[in-house]
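Exam review. A common question shows you a sequence with its structure tokens and asks you to describe the fold in words. Practice with the pair below. Do the first one on your own.
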Amino acid sequence: METQSKLDANFDAFKKLLPELLEKHSGKFAVMHECKLQEVFDTPADAYKYAQKLYKKGDYAIQEIGAKPINLGFYNHALLVHPV
């Protein structure tokens, strides 16, 4: 499956999980991989660090958990992450 298709599939899976995620994790960041929720983080930087250690670029998506889901594609490209 090509990268955009993987991102779209992860986003569709995220939208299905959104009602439950909003109840427990509103304002946090979800890591989606192979259409499954892998983990939830307080910051996008933490989500990115987790995902980049486990998955190839393009095989995961990071989504902010909010009332209006937005497909951010490669969310990690919008981050400035400093090594810890």
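Now try the second one, then compare your answer with the model answer below.
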Amino acid sequence: MKLLLDQNLSFRLLEKLEPVYPGSTQVKFVELDQADDLTVWQFVKDNGFTISSLAFIPGSQQSMVNIGELGGMMVAGRRYC
């Protein structure tokens, strides 16, 4: 699995992630840092990435959200949509 880190996650994480998720990158390195969500999702689908984002979830602390290639959303390991 390759991760595409969104602009909310530092590119500095890539060095630590590389051994476990080789081929991962951050949106700015693929010129998607200013792109709309649909463009990013299409890139993910076409290139075999999983989007990784740090997002605020109302009513909780900040949580890691992973949106997979098939459009599903995972929050703290639980699948939604």
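Model answer, second protein: Helices lie at 13-17, 37-47. Strands lie at 2-5, 25-26, 49-56, 62-67, 73-75, 78-80. Full marks require stating both points clearly.
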